[in-house]
Design goal:
The complex is a heterodimer of chains A (405) and B (142).
Chain A (H helix, E strand, L loop, with lengths): L3 H5 L8 E2 L2 E2 L1 E2 L10 H14 L9 H21 L7 E4 L2 H16 L5 E5 L8 H10 L2 E5 L9 H7 L4 E7 L11 H10 L4 E4 L11 H4 L3 E5 L10 E5 L1 H6 L10 E4 L4 E3 L13 H17 L1 H20 L4 E4 L8 E6 L4 H10 L2 E2 L1 E3 L4 H6 L5 E5 L6 H17 L2
Parallel strand pairs in A: 3-15, 5-6, 5-7, 7-8, 8-9
Antiparallel strand pairs in A: 1-2, 4-10, 9-10, 11-12, 13-14, 14-17, 16-17
Helix pairs in contact in A: 2-10, 3-10, 4-5, 11-14
Chain B lengths: L2 H13 L4 H14 L13 E3 L4 E9 L2 E8 L2 H14 L2 E2 H5 L5 H4 L14 H21 L1
Antiparallel strand pairs in B: 1-2, 2-3, 3-4
Helix pairs in contact in B: 1-3, 2-3, 3-6
Classes of the chains: A alpha/beta (405), B alpha+beta (142).
């Protein structure tokens, strides 16, 4: 039994009022709130156990290193990677993607090569590839999407050929909620020897991700979008790929032997972790993953589907409300506009009603351009949200429509 | 009325509104009374782009005073634009360039005009003052 009230009591931030109204937090796509167990873990580490990892001979450092490496194992298990060597800690999805665009780009992309992305990427999975394309005089190609916000698979087939060095694709769209058929796409790409990077920032919090089953070559996600701390992210890469790539940033921890003449680099995964790692955040994230597993990924997905269906039905009933993103397979995101009302007005009024939603382009400007709009209002819901909160959004929107009549 | 007096008048007007919805309703009303900006000024040249809403601002010298006309594609922002014009427009360049807009904070709209806010209002105030500064410098020269 999924006891949402009990779950809500695990998230201290839910228990507050804004402008004298109970907070309804529907901005989970931007960042999720943190369960008490994550907050407590960070506090305990900084109060008692803090010590730098991988270089100390003393008790605290050894224990901290052990915990940090446990966190890596935890992540490995969570996404079912083959080995801990394949789990690189970064400071977030963006850093994970940039690691690959830089190192893979340096090693394997040359003039005239093509890099393939999709029309629904957010800026973090566009700009790094643009920079790479510019640096190497390579060509960036874009797979189009249809009016429902789904990848046009026939176009994908046309665009995919041997001259493509890498395909970078979001697993789930942050602006529309679309869950892309990544397994099928990866298979098609591999038939043409094209490696695939998945941006999993929006996918990881909402369901089961098994990198071996997907067979993706790289997978990137952030801790703060999966109920963990800020400033930590993960880059998964198949070991055979990571072995082939040069290190990205240089510094401490990523080296084996350093002299002024030559430096030899550390083995995986440390080769890609230059400088002091954010080990408290990594350990905190591992706690968040424990929390998710205890709730059950399938139960979370089922409950969130219920929320999505309820919100879609309820909001569609509002006169003049248009939902953007009607993919058959979606996470619990409803991106919408009220006819004749600017998204900024909608967001500002809802804010004063205690409803936290994101408005604007969601850092995915090309997606907005595709639909001929300047932005949307986005309600991104997760397992601690309720149907009663969706009712509040509905009532708020009805009131808003009257105000702007 | 002085710049200070107009601001005090606005603060008085907002005092009667107890909750945010009333304040917003009043701003919506104000937006409807804002004179329309001639479409020839609704171009990128006059655009002050924020992340979400757009604001267009046109300034011209009328004798010794500056007159502003502006518009926004978002209604609440447009209401705030109307207030800014009421306070700033029709004054000397010298007065505008040094204007202390204390009313914004007092009527609770500080969030809407902070530099971190993703709309054009903060930039609009800055642009209004820049115009004034430019005109002022020109006046000093001649």
């Amino acid at each position: 039994m999924f006891d949402v009230q009990k779950i809500r009591s695990d998230f201290p931030a839910l228990d507050q009022q804004v402008y004298g109204k109970p907070l309804v937090y529907f901005d989970n796509g931007a960042t999720t709130l943190k369960p008490k167990v994550v907050i407590d873990t960070l506090q305990e580490i900084y109060s008692k156990r803090n010590s730098n990892v991988h270089r100390g001979i003393h008790y605290l450092s050894l224990r901290m290193t052990e915990e940090y490496e446990e966190a890596r194992k935890r992540v490995r298990k969570f996404i079912n990677a083959r080995s801990e060597k394949e789990i690189i800690f970064t400071n977030g999805t963006t850093a994970s993607i940039n690691t690959i665009s830089s190192t893979f780009g340096e090693e394997f992309v040359k003039e005239g090569d093509e890099i393939l992305i999709s029309a629904m990427e957010h800026h973090s999975n566009i700009v790094p590839w643009q920079i790479l394309a510019q640096r190497k005089a390579a060509i960036l190609k874009v797979i189009p999407m249809n009016d429902q916000g789904e990848i046009v698979m026939e176009k994908l087939d046309e665009l995919m050929h041997e001259g493509i060095r890498i395909l970078a694709l979001n697993h789930v769209s942050n602006a529309l909620g679309t869950i892309n058929p990544v397994k099928e796409i990866i298979q098609k790409a591999h038939e043409r020897n094209i490696p695939v990077l998945l941006d999993g920032a929006q996918a990881i919090p909402h369901g089961d991700v098994d990198v071996q089953d997907l067979d993706c070559d790289f997978y990137a996600f952030s801790g703060h979008k999966v109920y963990g701390p800020n400033g930590i992210g993960v880059l998964y890469g198949k070991e055979e790929w990571l072995e082939k790539l040069p290190p990205w940033q240089g510094g401490g921890d990523m080296v084996e032997k350093v002299s002024f003449e030559k430096t030899s680099f550390a083995e995986l995964p440390l080769k890609f972790e230059a400088g002091t790692a954010n080990y408290p955040a990594a350990i905190g994230m591992a706690k968040a993953l424990d929390y998710i597993d205890a709730l059950g990924k399938d139960q979370i997905a089922a409950y969130e589907k219920e929320l999505l269906d309820y919100a879609t039905l309820k909001l569609s009933a509002i006169d003049g409300l248009k939902i953007f993103g009607a993919a058959a397979n979606k996470i619990s995101i409803v991106s919408f506009l009220l006819e004749g009302i600017h998204q900024e007005d909608t967001g500002m009024v809802l804010d004063k009603m205690g409803l936290a939603l994101r408005t604007g382009t969601h850092c995915a400007e090309p997606v907005m351009t595709r639909f001929g709009i300047s932005g949307t209002v986005r309600a991104s819901m997760v397992f601690y949200n309720t149907k009663e909160e969706i009712d509040k959004l509905y009532e708020g929107l009805i009131k808003l429509r009257q105000m702007f009549r | 009325m002085t710049l200070k007096e107009v601001q005090e008048q606005i603060i008085d007007e907002f005092e009667i509104y107890e909750d945010w919805m009333d304040k917003y309703n009043y701003l919506i009303e104000l937006s409807q009374d804002l004179p329309v900006l001639d479409s020839k000024y609704k171009t990128s040249e006059y655009l002050i782009e924020g992340c979400q809403s757009k604001v267009w601002l046109y300034a011209k010298m009328d004798g010794n005073i500056i007159r502003y006309t502006a518009e926004s594609d978002a209604i609440i922002t447009k209401g705030i634009v109307a207030l800014l014009i009421r306070v700033m427009s029709g004054r000397s360049a010298e007065e505008i360039k040094d204007a202390n807009l204390f009313f914004i904070d007092r009527i609770g709209l500080k969030d809407n005009l902070s530099p971190t806010r993703a709309n054009g209002l903060f930039s609009m105030v800055k642009q209004m003052k820049l115009y004034a500064l430019a005109y002022f410098a020109k006046q000093q020269k001649s």
